[in-house]
Automatic annotation (TrEMBL):
Superkingdom assignment: Bacteria
Name this protein carries in UniProt: TIR domain-containing protein
InterPro entries: ThsB__TIR-like_domain (IPR015032), ThsB_TIR-like_sf (IPR036490)
A Pfam cross-reference name: ThsB_TIR
Domain Thoeris protein ThsB TIR-like: 4-83
């Protein structure tokens, strides 16, 4: 998406080097996710089957849906080459898109309130 013309975005992911990834408490993880999601117009979540069992992704979904006066739209991204997608992501996404720039950009534009 970095090379997509006429499309600007900001990645609000919790930084990889943030200790909350490995050493944080549940509350610290929830706070870190909330503080990032509050800045977003939409939330992109990888929809691989592993997502069903991810504590992190389940918290993202819960926060996006329940922590804001207007829920953050979730866009599920189907990993390249996979035929199955997480039921949890499917049930909560406003749209599921393929792993390609044009599909992702179109979904962001469609569901963003920006």
């Amino acid at each position: 998406m970095d090379n997509r013309s006429y499309f600007y975005y900001k990645n609000y992911s919790v930084p990889k080097d943030d200790p909350v990834h490995t050493n944080g408490t549940d509350k610290e993880l929830i706070d870190a996710i909330y503080n990032r999601l509050r800045l977003c117009h939409v939330v992109l979540i990888m929809g691989g089957v592993y997502s069903t069992y991810s504590k992190w992704i389940n918290k993202e979904i819960l926060i996006a849906n329940e922590s804001f006066s207007i829920p953050k739209p979730i866009i599920g991204i189907k990993p390249w080459g996979q035929t199955n997608i997480s039921t949890k992501v499917q049930e909560n996404a406003v749209e599921i898109v393929g792993w390609n720039t044009e599909s992702i950009v179109a979904a962001i534009r469609k569901h963003s309130n920006a």
